[in-house]
Amino acid sequence: MAGERKFIRESTNRILIKEYLIKKVEGAGFGGMTIQRTPMGTRINIVVERPGMVIGKGGSKIKEITSEINRIFNVDNPQIEIQEAGGQAALNAQIMAEKLAEALERGWHFRRAGHSTVRRIMSAGAKGCQVVIAGKITGARHRTEKFTQGHIKFCGETVKEVMDFGFAEAKLKAGVLGVKVGIMKPNARLPDEISL
């Protein structure tokens, strides 16, 4: 029972750390994170599009993030590693979701922003992608708009292996829009793809 509680606490902490980092590195293009326990402490690997914004002048921001993760989330000896997304940014669902949310906040029309995101992802070599924008897009009623191209998977065990998902929020005057991006990477192999 104690082991189960520890497992749940660690999983909850992981989600809370991710939410904290998304807010903290806003504008730097957050592309996900991994947490690894090591004998030396806890290694947190963050993928970002613009590492300079996360590191800060003379490493000031990264020091602040490290001490806050230690204090707020009670993570012992956190060691943060920054990894640049580089040319793979367009194939990172979280980065593309953040970019789309930023475009909507800057006043882009949702259709233009959605189609533009899909084009950029597909141009990077993705096998398929889907962009979903939900909320008060136009008018007072909530609705959902989907932009899909190529081949994508929605359900089953395969989804974990071949799909990458990202979620972001665009805060507009009318309300908050939820933005979800799903990408099937170029190297994704489906179970029905058999080579002899």
The Cα radius of gyration reads 18 Å
Which strands sit side by side, in order, in the main sheet? 5-4-7-6
Our measurement of the CA-to-CA distance between the termini, rounded to an integer number of angstroms, reads 49 Å
Quick one: overall form? globular
Low-pLDDT segments, ≥5 res: none
Summarize the main sheet. Answer: 4 strands, antiparallel
Q: Kindly name the structural category.
A: alpha+beta
Mean pLDDT: 88
Total helical segments: 6
How much helix is in the residues? 25-40%
Order of SSEs, N→C? HEEHHEHHEEHEE
Strand content: 25-35%
Report on this structure.
The protein has 196 residues and is of the alpha+beta class. It is built from 6 helices and 7 strands. It has helices spanning 2-24, 51-55, 60-72, 93-105, 110-123, 158-162; strands at 30-38, 41-48, 78-84, 128-135, 143-150, 163-172, 175-184. It has a 4-stranded antiparallel β-sheet with strand order 5-4-7-6. It has a 3-stranded mixed β-sheet with strand order 1-2-3. The longest helix is centred in the N-terminal third of the chain and has 23 residues, at 2-24. The model has no long low-confidence stretch (mean pLDDT 88).
Secondary structure topology:
Blueprint: H1 2-24, E1 30-38, E2 41-48, H2 51-55, H3 60-72, E3 78-84, H4 93-105, H5 110-123, E4 128-135, E5 143-150, H6 158-162, E6 163-172, E7 175-184
Helix pairs in contact: 4-5
